[in-house]
Design goal:
The protein is an alpha+beta fold. The protein has one helix at about 5-40; strands at about 45-50, 60, 65-70, 75, 90-95, 95-100, 110, 115, 120, 125-130, 130-140. It has a six-stranded antiparallel β-sheet with strand order 2-1-11-10-7-8, with no helix packed on it.
Length: about 140
């Protein structure tokens, strides 16, 4: 075999490898885009109802991401001294509600279980943030 033929064969092999890599990359991107389009991950309608002070009966509609605390930049502001300024986070991910304590001083519980790691919560669960008790309910707020 002549050196020119070997060089041509190597060039063709490299070109084919490059096109195969590009095709595989496009196939992976297409699959990810399709799965992202199908996974809306939109939270079902729900709300929290206060069971204790600072305002029993008050309701808070839920978004995909909800921050609880005393600070004004939280989604749900709970003006109670046992609630930290950034107390907890309730988010809808992967088709379920997850509650996380954000290092609060007085802790977070779900049905009397202490939240140490992100915990799955469902409609009907009672959540306690410091001394504030709320219940997670489904549907539109009244």
């Amino acid at each position: 075999m002549s050196p020119e033929f070997v060089l041509l064969a190597l060039r063709l092999a490299m070109a084919l490898a490059l096109y195969a890599f590009l095709a595989a990359t496009l196939a992976f991107l297409w699959r990810d885009l399709r799965s992202a389009a199908l996974d809306t991950n939109v939270a079902p309608q729900g709300y929290l109802e206060l069971l204790s002070l600072p305002g029993p009966g008050q309701v808070f509609p839920l978004n995909n991401l909800n921050l609880f605390g005393r600070a004004d930049d939280n989604t749900i502001i709970l003006d109670e001294e046992t609630v930290s300024s950034r107390h907890a986070r309730l988010s809808y991910r992967g088709g379920q509600w997850l509650l996380e304590d954000l290092g609060s001083k007085n802790g977070t519980t779900v049905n009397e279980l202490t939240v140490e790691d992100p915990m799955v919560v469902t409609f009907g669960d009672e959540i306690r943030l410091g001394n504030v008790r709320v219940i997670l309910k489904g549907g539109q707020p009244p």
